[in-house]
Amino acid sequence: MPFQPGEKLEYRVAWTSFNDAAAVELSVPERRDLFGWPVWHFQATVHTSHSVRTLFPVDDQFDSYTDTSSLDCRQFEMYLNELGRRTTTVLHFIPTGQRPRIPGAITVVLPGTRDPLGMLFTLRGTDWQRQPEVHVPVYDGHDLYDVVAHLEASADSVQVDAGSFTASRVSIRVFEDGREKSDTRFTIWFANDESHAPVQFVAELPFGSVRVGLTNRKPGA
After folding, report:
1. Which 3-state string (H, E, C) describes 65-95?
2. Does residue 180 sit within a domain?
3. Which candidate, 96, 107, 39, places its Cα nearest to that of 70?
């Protein structure tokens, strides 16, 4: 995989007319054992900034424990603090037909299912020159989606705060119950270097357009 424990990627989020709406950090805190599975631990944090924070105070954290071999999700955690309301959700993913290894409640999913954060790292680890399209089921804790990622361009020039990059542009289409969600589209640019870091995101969402650009990156050990 093009990442190692200790890596941190920092981003600035622009939303509608706000050029500095939020700060996002993606990291790989560790590689560990989880109930007998060797897993990557991926983490994402989101904090709204400045004037947006007065309207929508958000301090969220997401943790994905993703199998190191299959990249299937084993555990997905959401710690949400939005508009003064705190919620915690921990989901233990068990593929259909597999016996649980963990105590307590489980979430039965299709084999190969990712959580949204693990999906991002799956796309990052894809060799887009050899595999120009990826189909993956994604469960976000509420709904199951079929996500189709397709390579649109292999050598775009991208300028963000962290520098200039040549990047692969990948479009993301989201389907629910066989129908495409026409109000939800993503485009991600992955650097064409050994890190394959996502350097820019553009999203068309029901609540507006979002652009996310890399501001700083710290490689893993």
Report:
1. EEECCCCCEEEEEEEEEECCEEEEEEEEEEE
2. yes
3. 39
Task: Report, as ranges of residue numbers, the positions in the chain whose pLDDT lies below 70.
Answer: none
Cα–Cα dist 136/148, whole Å: 7
pLDDT at residue 99 in the model: 84
Does 1 map to a domain? Answer: no
Place of tokens 């508009």: 83
Q: Which of 10, 46, 7, 9 is nearest to 29 (CA)?
A: 7
Domain span at residue 183 reads 8-218
Distances in Å between the alpha carbon of 48 and those of 13, 20, 54?
A: 9, 9, 9
Domain count, the chain: 1
Residues 49-101 have pLDDT tens digits of 988 898 889 999 999 999 999 999 999 999 999 998 999 999 999 998 888 88
